[in-house]
Here is the input.
Amino acid sequence: SLYSQYIFNLYAVNPAYAGERNAASTALSYRAQWVGFDGAPSTAYFSAHSPLKNKNLAAGIWIQKDQVGAREHSAVHGTISYKLGLGDSRRVSFALSAGALNHRYNWNELDFPDGADPVSFVTEANQWRPQFDFGVMYLSKQAYAGLSILNLNGTDLSSLDIIDARLEPVLNLVGGYIFPVSENVDLKPSSLVRFQ
Here is the structure.
């Protein structure tokens, strides 16, 4: 998944952001690329997170569906994060997210001009797999920096030894700073770097 609008929902790229708005927070997004082309990528995403009564803990949930051509990924995750106060409104947050990924191929949507692809006969069309993410984030009133590892367990997408299909772990580095421009305007540059 690509999150070009991550700045509005840091929880989408780092589970350690759960509960950082000091109130219940929800987000809903949909992204369609290459509109008008058959099999064009699309992503739908919903999340909700909130601090818990114990002010050092927060919880969240996210649900996502990605589709590219005949391949679909649907996932649901729950998150728990722990906040460690450093004083002066600074804190470090640690989080673990666990859930399930449904990987599905819609083989009937593909055309095989030379006959059927043999892989389609030996691979499962619909599979559920466990998936884990980890995140750590430093936050203050004016800055944030975080590191997250998504697909921590390198989710295997095939139950056959002859096929090596997996979602590799993704490392996200995110950071930003708030520059006050005037009493009513702040400038908030940020950056997200992904390694896979």
Remarks:
- Residues 8 and 27 are 9 Å apart (CA to CA).
- The first helix runs from residue 118 to 122.
- The mean pLDDT is 87.
- Helices lie at 118-122.
